[in-house]
Amino acid sequence: MTIHIPDSAPRIHDQGFRPYDGPIRRPSSATWTLCRYTIGRSVGRRRKFRFKLVPIFAALFVFVVVAGYVIFAFVSGVPSVAPGEESPYFEYVRDFYRWAVIGVALLSVSIPPQVLSGDRRGGLLNLYMTTPLSRSKYVSAQGIAFLSVTAMLAVPAFLLLLVVYSLLGKGPGDIADFLNFLWRIPVGSLTLALLPVALGMAFGVMVRRGSLGAVYNIALLWITFGVARTIRTTNDISDSIFFMSPIDTALSLTRVVFGGRNSPELLPYVPNAVIVLGYLAWVVAAMVYVFWRSRKFTESL
Q1: Measuring CA to CA, how many Å separate 193 from each of 27, 124, 150, 183, 226?
Q2: How far apart are the first and last CA of the chain?
Q3: What is the DSSP string of 50-73?
Q4: What is the pTM of this model?
Q5: 301 in helix, strand or coil?
Q6: What percent of the chain has pLDDT over 70?
Q7: Contact present, 221 and 290 (Cβ < 8 Å)
Q8: Contact 202, 289 (CB under 8 A)
Q9: What are the boundaries of each domain within the chain?
Q10: What is the pLDDT of residues 233-276, one digit of tens each?
């Protein structure tokens, strides 16, 4: 029996889903895939222009300061130092982290809350949990992405200043000193970025609106900074009160890494071990809260 179907009758043209023909990777690569995707989101890749404003402004600020340092290196005279001794002008390069922290803070207070809260509101967190990603892998991937974006804001700037000042005879004393400062650049940049990023992630999982998390983060940073400075300048108490301020804590440990000048504002009389412990206390407390809150989210999925 033959069934005649008129031309005007509806037909099914799609015989099924198109098979996936992209690369097939191991389940363990899901962490790095999410990390790369978050890095792109953090810098505003394929997003509206308003999401690019903070990364652009932070990068412009840091490299305008770098340009000022480079101009200063060209117009200032060459100091007379003995062979093998470090130029006194190189102290400015060691202290560049005081400017870099502003750009790092801009990124850390805005990007982690924006991305983490956006994952929950937009349903991406539900999608991630259906993949080989676990709760710890999700948090780790996001943390690595945020840390990469913020730390890489400072690394190229330090490298450029190191090369320029060295070529102009205003750098480290010899090749050993050059290499000694070279390894400090990534370590110091990560040190400068880790604590602000951990706090940014904590506020990102605390609220559902990224802008609100950024406001809370800024309030914590500047209120604790102002209170700690006020107490230290108006009361005869231990300098260890600086642990109240995450900014002072991060700056103090970064100064230790770069070997910058001892400044009364950055606690030269506090032992390095105490500074490290205070730094780790802030980071561990923030990340414990991040993992605890993320467990609450994933258990409710």
Answers
A1: 29, 26, 6, 16, 20
A2: 53
A3: GGTHHHHHHHHHHHHHHHHHHHHH
A4: 0.83
A5: coil
A6: 81
A7: no
A8: yes
A9: 28-299
A10: 666 555 566 678 888 888 888 888 887 654 545 555 677 788 88
